[in-house]
Amino acid sequence: MNGKDNIGYSNDENDIPLKRRQNDDNFSTLTIGPDSRNEENSNDNNEDNDEPSALMKFYEKNKKIIKFILIVLTHIIVGSYFAYATYFFVDSENKHRTWEIYPDPNNTNITDGRCHGSCGFQFCDGYGMLLIVTCIVYICLIYYYIIKPVTEKPIGRLYDNTIKKILIKRVTKTLTVAKIFGIILAILVIIGIAIYLFIETKDDPKRLVSLAGPFVFISLGYIFSADRQAIKWRPVLVGITGQFILGVICIRWDVGRKIFQCLGDKVVTFLNYSRPGSIFVYGAKLVEWNTFYFALLSVIFFFSFFISILYYLGAMQFVVQKIGWMISSLLGTTACESLNAGANIFLGMSESPLLIRPYLNLLTHSEIHAVMASGFATVSGTVLAAYVSYGASAALLITSSVMAAPAALGMAKLYYPENEKTKTGSNQIQMEKSGDSSILDAASNGASNAIPIVLGIAANIIAFIAFIAFLNGIINWLGYLVGLDNIDFEWVMSKVFMPISWIIGIEWSECEKVGRVIAAKTVVNEFVAYEKLGALIKANKISPRAAGITTFAICGFANPSSLGIMMGALGTMAPGRKKHITKVAMRSFIVGCFVCFTSASFAGLMMSDEFLAEQQR
User: Fold this and answer.
1) Domain check: are 23 and 60 in the same one?
2) Are 235 and 413 in contact (CB under 8 A)?
3) Is pLDDT at 393 greater than 80 in this prediction?
4) Does residue 398 form part of some domain?
5) Both 303 and 440 in a single domain?
6) Among 88, 245, 280, 483, which residue has the fewest nearby CB atoms (within 10 Å)?
């Protein structure tokens, strides 16, 4: 045997191989062929053992029956739980109504943030929420598994044979007819809005000054558009009109305001489940002090974890396609940018792109611009509590984010129109399956994937805030040399924002104070701005109307530190698109600011003295 070989050969005619075996005492011995032959036999036996077991054969043979039984059992369990919950709710209401005849002073219905005892039907809590969720789930199941399979083919044939052949083909043959129809529809909408504004402001015509804001911002968008020839007015007009209509629903209609308030509360509750994990890792003090990195950024780990699970289950792909189709059908925008805009109502600018992360590399320049503008125009549910602690109205904050969703897409398509062929239309997105091997693998990878996102956000926010401090120092020094000690970059920007404060509906006598607040938000961040606004409100230095309009004007993430967060987050999710992201970043930042100002203008039109008095209470 050759000494340098690990496998030797005997001298017999069978030339049986010898294998080296390692003993426990770390000495090597040689084994001859029969052992290796036994190993081969054992491998053959293992291959035989890989055949499906009797249980697997039974499952494969009766898969449909087993699936049907499991579905029936699930519905029986859900139905039984719902029936008992209904009985418990009715019984509790009756008992507590009886007890109220002899009230107990030590008894209270509110103990842990939930209603206990006789609290009535509340759609956002307790049995009311269970009823609504159950109804929504079963309506969707009935539609997708019963109504849709039965009616899809007949309706499709009806559409192809009548509507498509007779109406659509005739209309599309003559573009003039379609244009005339669009013009007539736009005129009718304008007339309807004009009538509403006349009725709404006839007792206070000064509120009409707020109309100057949307007119100025839309005009600037057309003048400075990246490609005026490519502007499609449908998303612009529908987006701005949708912003106005949502304002009416959320500000003037009490039911609409309560619905969005409920949704916002539930999102905040869900995201706050990240706090126990943060407290366990970082300690209670760092989290309870709302330290930015340890308290706020930790939400991204939990949210990425959850989104990864939904992708593995296929639920998120379904949501991307359906919600994207719904919004894009109204505005004519693509599925990804539409879903991102809708998600930004409650989620942050670094959490929302996680919903469309697999498609970020496919987005066009205009779509990236729209994604970033939507993030800058809204705030997340995770920071609403901080704003409210400074004195801002929770209802107005939720309303502002809701109004900004369609307007962000509309304004984005005005300032940076689509001039490329999109790859993320609702009918183009492929329902990609997760590459994870199991739900646990998906959860672990989701949490791990958030690490570079969080680090990128932290690095960018440190750098940008430091740069703003540097600018403040330079301008303060230049002012000091000529005897002006209190001048800094924020002071300069407050003078710039005085005219903007006026065109969104602020009285000129209050424009300087409001301009300082808007400048603080634009130059530093919205936390500082809401702190300044709260101080003005407590000192009664601005009117309730000015405070309400300002709440809308600064309700967005458009500030330098958020610019760094956005570029860091998107750059980490799509490293190949960093060049494109930085190219459209500043333009989307400006669009985000203008969307907030447009929301403030519409709010100034709609907020009556009675509404403002109610918010103060």
Assistant:
1) no
2) yes
3) no
4) yes
5) yes
6) 483
